[in-house]
Amino acid sequence: MKWHTNKLWLISLDILVIIMSFFLALGLKYDFEIPMFQVEFFMRNVVVYVIIKIVIHKLFSLYDSIWLYASIEEMMRIVAAVLISNTIGIFYMVLQNSTLSLSVYIICLMVEMSGILGIRVSYRIIRRIKNFGWHFHKSDFKNVLIIGAGSTATMIAKEMKERPFLHGHLVGFIEDDDESLGQFINGVRILGNRFDIYSVSKRYEVDEIILAIPGKDAHLTREILLESSKCGCKVKTVPGIQEIIDGKVSVQHIRDIEIEDLLGRSPVELDMTGINSYLKDKVVMVTGGGGSIGSELCRQISLFQPKLIIVLDNYENNAYDITNEILRFHHSRVNILPLIANVQDEKNMMTIFSQYRPQVVFHAAAHKHVPLMEAVPREAILNNCFGTLSVLKAADKFHVERFVFISSDKAVNPTNVMGATKRIAEMIVQSMSQKSDTIFTTVRFGNVLDSNGSVVPLFKKQIRAGGPVTVTHKDIIRYFMTIPEAVQLVLQSGAFAVGGEVFVLDMGKPVKIYDLAVNLIRLSGFEPEKDIEISIIGLRPGEKLYEELLLKEEGLEKTANKKIYIGKVKDVEPKMLNKSLEILKDVANSCSADEIKEALKNLVPTYHNESEFDDRLIIPIKSQDVNRLNQ
Question: What are phi and psi of 466, to 5 degrees?
C-alpha cells in the first residue's frame, strides 16, 4: 500500500513539473507577460499533453525504481524518457496549430528535465541529511573496512552509507591498484593496498573486515584472508560471482568467512558432455544417499536430467531430507525415490536391483568414523567390506553399466580398521572388474569440509561455546576439499572410467589442523589462547599424523582433468581374495576385536593397528609435505 501511495505522489509531482515547466518557458519567452491566447491554447491541450508524457515516463519505468538505490541507469532512463516525451509533445502541439517557437519547447525541455531529475535526487539527499546525525554518535558503531574497490564494493558501501546505524561506520577501502590510492568512493577514501590491511585496521580501530572481491584468483583471496585474520577483526565476505550476476548482493547477503575460503582452491573444470552422456535419462542409484557425500551426489546428479534417482540409505531421516530438498528445488523435473535398506542384506539388494534396474550406481554407504570403528571392527567389516560386496554382486548380476565406489585416503597404509576395510573394499571392486561387463571403478580422496563428523563443524561448535578448541596433535596434517568439489570430481571420474581404475583426486596442499583452528578462531573475531583456548588432547585410536593418497607401489597417470589422476594399483587375484574374505567373515562373526584386527592383516599387509604403530605416528612429516606446508 505504501509503495502505491509513493507512486501516486511521484506521478502527481511529475504532472506539476510538466505544467510548471511549460508556463515557465512561456514566461521567459514573453518576459512573464504571457498572451492570454497562449494560455488558453495550452489549457485546451494540457490533458492530452500531460497524458502523453506520463505514459512515456511509465514505459521507461520511471515509477518502478526504488529511488533510495537509484544509479546512473535510472538517470539515463529519465533523460531518455523526457527527451522522447517532449519530442512527441511538440509534434502533438504542432498538430494542434501551435504558434510557439522552438525556443519555448527547448526551455520547457530543460526545465522539465531538471525538475524530474531533481525530485528523484532530492529523495536521496533528504535521506542523507536525516542520516547525518549518526556522525555525532559514530563511536557507538562498529568500524568497517572493505577490501576491494570495484562494483561489488561500491554497492556494499552505498548501502552502508544509507544505513550506518545498521551496518556500521565505513572507514575506508583497500585496493591493490596504486593509482587508486587516496581516491574516494561514495565519499570514503581508499586507504591502502592488501599489504596495508593490518596497519590500516589498527590505525582506524577496525572491528569488521568485508572481503568484496568475488571472482578473484582463489590463491590471492586466501592470502588476503590470512592477512585479515591477523587483525583481530570479524572477517566476512560477499557471495560468489554468480550471485553477483543474479543481482543478489546486498549487505544482508554478506556472510561469515568459511574455512573453504582459506583453501585457495581453483574452480573445478568439468567435461559436462562426458558426464551428461552417462547420467542423462538413466536410472541412477546412490547408496548412502542421505550422507554428506551421498546427498551432494544426488543434488548434482539431478542437474543432468536422470530418468530416476534412487536414494538408498539405512537412515530414514537423511533420505527423507535430501528427497524433499530435491523435490522442492526441481519439482516435477526430477524423479527421485527414497529406499530404506541395509547394503549388508544381499537378498534385499538383489530384489531392489531386479525391480528398479539401476544403470549407474554410486556406492557411498560406509561406516567412516575412525575411533568408533576401532571399538567395533566387526561392524566396519560387515558394512564396508561385505556391504560393498553385496551391492557389487547385484550390480554385476543385473548388468549395471557403471559402478563408482567412494573410497578414502585412509585406505593407504591404514593405521585403523576403517582404513583397512576401505582398502579391502577397493580390492573387491578391482576383483569384480576383472570378471564383469560392468565398468567398476574406485575414487579415492581425503577429508571433505563440513561432512558429518569432520573437524570443521566441531571447531565451529567449540568456538560458539567459547572454547576450548580441541586438536589431537600440534603437528597433525590433513588434505581437504569441499563436498561439492569432491562430488564434481567423482562425477568426472565416472565419465573417465573404463574399468578397474583407482582414481586419485588432487587434494591440494596439506593443512595443519592446528593452523586451521587458529585461523577459524581469528576469522570469528577472537584471539587464540587469549579469547579461545586451543587444547592438545592427543591422537585418537587409529589416527596418524598425516594421510597418504598412494601406496608405495602406486604411481600416477594423468587424465584429461588436472585434478584427477589414476593410481597404478597391483592386480588382485579373485580366488585368493574370495577365500580370504570367507575367513574374514567367520572371524568377524565369532572373534574378539583384537583377533579381528589381526585377521585384517592377512588381506591388507600394510595395515598396522595403533598399538604397533606408535613409532610411525611420531615419524617427522615427509620433506615434500614440509615444503608444501611452507609454500
Answer: 90, 10
What the block records as the C-alpha cell of 622 is 615427509
544-581 pLDDT, tens per residue? 676 665 555 556 788 888 889 888 777 788 888 999 99
> Which residue in the list 29, 53, 282, 410 is annotated as catalytic?
410
C-alpha cell at 199: 596497519
- Please write down the HEC assignment for all residues of 276-319: HHHHCCCEEEEECCCCHHHHHHHHHHHHHCCCEEEEEECCHHHH
Kindly state whether residues 400 and 360 are assigned to the same domain. Answer: yes
DSSP-based three-state secondary structure for 334: coil
Report whether 602 contacts 381 (CB < 8 A).
Answer: no
| 32 is a domain residue | yes
Is 256 strand, coil or helix?
strand
- Give the residue from 423, 365, 424 showing the smallest Cα distance to 394: 365
pLDDT at residue 412, as a whole number: 86
pLDDT at 3: 45
Looking at the fold, whether 359 and 311 belong to one and the same domain comes out as yes
Pair 192, 293 in one domain:
no
Q: What is the pTM of this model?
A: 0.64
Helix (H) or strand (E) holding 209: strand 208-211
Give me the amino acid identity at 63.
Y
Domain that includes residue 22, residue range: 2-131
Given a contact cutoff of 8 angstroms between Cβ atoms, the answer to whether 49 and 92 are in contact is: yes
Identify whether residues 227 and 122 lie together within a single domain.
Answer: no
Q: Is the peptide bond before 164 cis (omega within 30 degrees of 0)?
A: no
* Cα 514 to Cα 469: distance, rounded to the nearest angstrom: 10
Read out DSSP for 211-241? E--TTS-HHHHHHHHHHHGGGTSEEEE---H
Structural domain includes residue 524: no
Total domains in the fold of the chain: 3
591498484: which residue's cell?
A: 177
Q: Please count the helices (runs of H) and the strands (runs of E) in the chain.
A: 25, 22
Whether residue 410 lies in the annotated active site: yes
Q: 528 CB contacts (<8 Å, ≥6 apart)?
A: 517, 518, 521, 522, 534
Tell me, what CATH number does 399's domain have?
Answer: 3.40.50.720
Q: What is the DSSP string of 389-453?
A: HHHHHHHHHTT-SEEEEEEEGGGSS-SSHHHHHHHHHHHHHHHHHTT-SSEEEEEEE-EETT-TT
Residues 137-179 have pLDDT tens digits of 555 678 999 998 887 788 788 777 777 667 788 889 998 887 7
Residue 337: which residues within 8 A CB-CB, separation 6 or more?
Answer: 308, 309, 310, 311, 323, 356
Of 610, 451, 473, the closest CA to residue 541 belongs to: 610
- Mean pLDDT by groups of 10 residues along the chain of 631 residues: 64 87 84 84 87 86 62 76 88 82 86 84 66 53 86 80 75 84 82 89 89 74 82 78 47 62 68 92 96 93 94 94 88 87 96 97 94 92 96 97 94 90 95 94 82 74 89 82 88 92 83 84 82 87 66 71 84 88 92 89 82 38 37 38
Say which amino acid occupies 200.
V
What distance in Å separates the CA atoms of residue 603 and residue 581, rounded to the nearest whole number? 8
